[in-house]
Amino acid sequence: MLLSEQEQFLSYNGEVLIFQLSKTRHVEETADETVNLRVRRMAFNRDTKLFVEKSSGVFSMRASHLKIEIVCCSCVMDSRTGIILPCILVKKKKQNNAVKYLLLLLHNSNQFEQSFHFKLDYELKEDIRFFTGPSVLWRHANKLFYICSNTCTVLSAPIQLSSVVWTGEIEDEGTVILGIRTACLPENEDEDEFSTSDRAIWGSEFFGYAIETQKMLTGTCFMPHAYSRVVSFVYVCKNKILKKRLQISLVAITQKNQLIWFQDGLPKGVCELPYEKPCSVKPAVTNSNDLLLIVSFASGDICVVQRRDSLQVASKWQKVKSVLVDDFIGSGSEQLLLLFEDESNADPLSTFKITDLGDINYAAGCTSIRELQQHLGLKRRVILESCRALIDLVEERNHILPTAKEEGLVSLWDDVENPPHSLNKETSLASKVPEHFTEKLWQRVVGDSLVVGVKLTESFCLSLSDVSLSLVMDQDSSSISPIIKCRNKIIKLNKAFSALAISSCQIEPPPKKMKLDLHNKNDLKKEFPKRCSRVQLDGAKTVIAVTSLSPLLAFHHVCCIVLLHAKKQKHQNDSLQESKKITVLCGKFLLSLEDISNGKYSVKMIRDSSYCTGSMEDILAVLAVSVRFSFQIVSSDCTLTPVNSWLLGEMECTPFKECHDNIFCHKAGNVYGTVFNWTLKNPCEGVLTLFCRNLTVLFQCLHSLTRVLPPNCDVKLLRSGSKSILTEQLALALEREMLTLRSSFFSKESKVENNLTWGNEPGKKISDASAASLLDSEEGVQQFRKKFQNEREESVLSDVH
């Protein structure tokens, strides 16, 4: 290998360190040569989207009759100062095959310090690792050797091993190596009595060895022995001592091209890797606190495995020269830096990618890939809209501009064309709306929040989606905006079944931001007939708007207009037709400081015997201003009876008379007004849902709860909604989309011919049966949707020519 090709990359404090060897000759007549080890500190410039050289340094070595190479580099702790520094191991090989190694430390001033050197009669090739000191360990002839900076002497560990798979720090044990060695059969067993499978399992074992104490650690606390024959690399993610017992989480890559997650010695998840011969794994913690596992392969390929509900390959790349993990852009979280092979450019940082698999995405000095995709998508939509406008102009039709939502933007008026003062035109949009579509308009004041609710009739609810409220001030003032910023919630509180269904969305945000397509729940009885078959209720759904109260009190008296926005769906022959956006006037209400001071809109939660007698509007108001948290509580060896006793006793809770499963906290202090819902799945497992005003109240409740829970309880924060409900919602949404695509496509094409012709080109006919078969799987639906969309866009473009 040429010296110029010996490049090593290392990330340190958000910078990229490039180490490179170069040779110079002092005088032509002499054989004296000097090899320079140069380091370049490269920092990412967010303005130019490029890496620029920040500083550099050089370490010179006499190289007469020597072959000098960089063996490896890493970041280790200097035991003298406790500071983590870059560390480089350099090899000097003489012509008589004697080998000398130098361990160098790089300081922030770019000065190299020779920590120690040592000589061997062989070359280091197997399992070379760094650890605190700095220290170096390696494996040779199935033995473990190491050298520390404080002794500068090569030492041998009293163990035999076939490989080293991890080196690092473990609590109470110091520096530990994890390795694989030949296992000894149990003393009371005869080797001849073992079957072939038993011999395979007992042929090797996983073990740990603490270097400072020379203590052996039981391998089964890391993983079962059966995995030792296939594991090639390990990364310990977390370790701690709890009740004098080592608890450890680790990931291992295997020769079977798998990544396996182990927790306390037991496998908890497995992921099939996309390439062969994985050789290392390293972690990255992104801005969203997601743990990414970066797996490198011998071929130069890279894949990232994400651990959420299960282990899944999130992304992969090929022809990667090096992958580094650090905070390169200064965001406070880690990103991946992928350096790609580029033979056409001598600059090692000419082709790169910075990503956290989320919002952060830079590539080879360009703007983010996501921004480019959004820009290209916008240009395509502009071209398509221009074509439609031209067609309408030629055919003498009025062209209707797309709504803000179709363009991915949020308008201030939710696409209401008329100003709020001309409500006579607004109400004309509701000509086909039933006369009595609302049962009640009500207001409540909870803390510094004004809660406005509109109770809709059941028949009206069934035909609506994307329902929201707008609050508009009926004030003659040009100096302020009449629009009241608020957030919307849709709550359906079942009296008998006591199931809470809450859908939340933000309305009236700042304009020109990407708008999320949120799913608003329709009637629960319609969407989940099995789950709600025994619910006996009035069937009404309440739409709620919550806004800050204090800005409105500045007017002393204010009149607010309540507008309801929704999509009204049309059903015909059991198929969902195109929906129409409507805006209807729900009514007005007067708000005055005097009424608020007199408690006219206050929430009244009265403790009457064993029940809380708050009205349904009071309950909804409290839930609307609260933040919902759900926790799964599992006890391995005790029942969860103390939770119910804690709610009714220490927290002084009583159930609502309107819905018994939800209980109101009457305890004095910050926790007053918290709503709980405790559901037992079995005596040892349950879900506790809390509706709190803020996080402080949540922490107080959890702190009180932990004092009564059994010692071995596991408490886990759940996402909003149960897994079964979220899964069912997704399935129903996909089913509706599939039926819509099927009906809208076949209703037009089947009338013309029995076969589908894509793009009017010969040889591209698809029968009805084959097209229908596409819709039998998720991949088929995606393929069908893409073809259908391309056909529509191409037909529009072809009509212009």
From TrEMBL:
Determine the domain of life of the protein's source: Eukaryota
Q: List the residue ranges forming a coiled coil, or say none.
A: none
For this chain's UniProt record, which GO biological process terms are given?
Answer: interstrand cross-link repair; negative regulation of double-strand break repair via homologous recombination; positive regulation of double-strand break repair via homologous recombination; replication-born double-strand break repair via sister chromatid exchange
**A cellular component annotation (GO) from this entry:** Fanconi anaemia nuclear complex
Range of residues in the leader sequence? none
| Name this polypeptide is given | FA complementation group B
Source species = Falco tinnunculus
